[in-house]
Amino acid sequence: MSGIEKAWYGKPGGFSLLLPFSWLYRLVAAIRKSFQQARYQGKDWPVPVVVIGNISVGGTGKTPLLIALTKSLAARGIKPGVVSRGYGGSAGASPLTVNASTSVRQAGDEALLIARRANCPVVVCSDRRAAVDKLLNENQVDIILSDDGLQHYRMHRDMEVVVIDKQRGLGNGYCLPVGPLRETAGRLHSVDAVVINGADEDDAGVCMAGLSDSPVKAYGMELKPTVLVNLVSGEKQEASSWSGREVHGVAGIGNPARFEATLNELNLKPRFRAFPDHHNFSVADLAFDDDLPIIMTGKDAVKCESFASEHCWYLDVEAEIPEELVCIIGNKIDQKIDVRY
Predict the structure, then answer these.
(1) CB-count burial class (<10 Å; 0-12, 13-18, 19+) for 196
(2) Backbone φ/ψ region at 66: left (φ over 0), alpha (ψ -120 to 50), beta
(3) pLDDT digit string (tens) for the chain, length 341 residues
(4) Which of 162, 193, 226, 289 stands 20 to 30 A from 54 (CA)?
(5) Residue 11 shares a structural domain with residue 150
(6) Domain match, 166 and 278 both
(7) Domain that holds residue 192
């Protein structure tokens, strides 16, 4: 954990000198939100848009939640589509349709991972409104899930789901740059649902009560490791079968400590190396002076597969989510029809 993160998820310490900048950030964010909502909200689409986002920076588990939701909705006969900013990709302001063979340099790591796992239409663009338009023009979908975009107020949304990491919570409770928050904890009063990553159904509400007095219901979500997949051969092995093995672990995600903890929970013995979120991996990053297996996340794997060795594996995980949340999201389709007609 970097020095900044230690301050964010502990006491502000020396960062207290930056409090005026945190207050300024809050003010600018509030003005921007008010302006964009007044100008763009209400300009909606014929299908509901559900935002899966967060109010803090760093990894909270949005992407595995979104993938699990697309699969659960599809299992109910619902056709989902996904829009994303395509962070780290080159699409920029030009909407790009992403499929399994799209270059990671074009799509960005998260969008490519979603396209491969969710098996539904995916469009990336820095302007999510343009992404939604392209998605609807080229596909027949019943509902659209937005990967992040909670603060993208130019985009109308019919439902907001906020994901919070159980271990990190909301950090020290301050907005950037003193703390990790993009918006204050008060924002949780206006969302439709909160998902606590790492909590089960029994303690999700308790976790929520410790973060906010918002009456919004909190749901638990747990990420379950399933198999290890070889980047070269595609071979799959049960993650549990590697218990006791010494490995190299690498992660370029928003919360690499969570991945390291997962490897330890699998009773592996990782020599771990963390990289910045969305790190552009190179051959040198995976060069070690031994033949130990190298384990990474699925998000990092899409950036390494073109040069990976036979020692490289990624850990596949599945998000376990409550049926109630899936039903609430699916019901947005009927509610949209009722409103329009």
Answers:
(1) buried
(2) alpha
(3) 677 888 898 776 667 778 899 999 999 999 988 888 777 766 789 999 999 999 999 889 999 999 999 999 999 999 999 999 999 899 888 999 999 999 999 999 999 999 999 989 999 999 999 999 999 999 999 999 999 999 999 999 999 999 999 999 999 999 999 999 999 999 999 999 999 999 998 899 999 999 999 999 999 999 999 999 999 999 999 999 999 999 999 999 999 999 999 999 999 999 999 999 999 999 999 999 999 999 999 999 999 999 999 999 999 999 999 999 999 999 999 988 665 54
(4) 226
(5) yes
(6) no
(7) 3-222+321-340
Same domain, 30 and 42: yes
Structure tokens at 114: 């979603």
DSSP 177: T
CATH of the domain at 311: 3.40.190
Contact 154, 129 (CB under 8 A): yes
Number of compact structural domains in the chain: 2
We report the CATH number of the domain holding residue 148 as 3.40.50.300
Question: Per this entry, what is the length of the chain?
Answer: 341
- Name the residue with tokens 């003005």: 31
In this structure, is the dihedral angle defined by the CA atoms of residues 227, 50, 215 and 174, taken in order, positive or negative?
A: positive
Say yes or no: 149 and 265 in one domain: no
Nearest to 132 by CA among 107, 157, 163, 102: 157
165 torsion bin: left (phi>0), alpha (psi -120 to 50), beta (else): beta
On whether the pTM is more than 0.85, the answer is yes
- The answer on 283 and 242 residing in a single domain is yes
Residue with tokens 């340099």, as numbered in its chain: 105
Q: What single letter denotes the amino acid at residue 89?
A: G
Q: Which phi-psi region, left, alpha or beta, contains residue 328 (left: φ > 0; alpha: ψ -120 to 50)?
A: alpha
